[in-house]
Amino acid sequence: MVKKRKIPKSKSKVYIGDCAETLMPEIPLAPIERIFKKAGAERVGEDAIIALRDVLENVAYEVSVKSIELAKHAGRKTVSADDVKAVVRIFKCINLS
């Protein structure tokens, strides 16, 4: 029988410009742990799960802000997938083939 461990809920810091705002995290920890497992990790420390979650939330926030700017610049209220992909290409953090 697999022992389930309790992962504590923690507040993360979202960095907006120069200031950090403490918010309740939006992304649950369990999916982050599953991503580590799919990537081949046998064991994952709670601190690693929380750290990756915080990084992903910060990146998602920044991409969202810039995507909204692109949509507004194009005269739209709706953010499209093309806006998100354009921002990611601008940030050069991932190849979207």
What is the mean predicted local confidence, pLDDT? 82
Which blocks of ≥5 consecutive residues have pLDDT under 50? none
The ordered string of helix (H) and strand (E) elements is EEHHH
Tell me the number of strands.
2
Computed over alpha carbons, the radius of gyration is 16 Å
Strand residue content: 5-15%
Distance between the termini: 41 Å
Which shape, going by the Cα principal axes?
elongated
Considering DSSP H and I runs of 4 or more, what fraction of the residues is helical?
Answer: 40-55%
Largest sheet: 2 strands, antiparallel
Strand order of the largest sheet: 1-2
Instruction: Give the count of helical stretches.
Output: 3
The assigned structural class equals: mainly alpha
What are the main properties of this structure?
97 residues; two-stranded antiparallel ribbon
How would the blueprint of this fold be written?
Blueprint: E1 12-16, E2 19-23, H1 29-38, H2 46-73, H3 81-91
Antiparallel strand pairs: 1-2
Helix pairs in contact: 1-2, 2-3
Task: Tell me what you see in this structure.
This protein has 97 residues and is mainly α. 51% of the residues lie in helices and 10% in strands. Strands 1-2 form a two-stranded antiparallel ribbon. α1 crosses α2 and α2 (46-73) packs across α3 (81-91). The N and C termini lie far apart (41 Å).
Concise summary:
Helix content is 51%, strand content 10%.
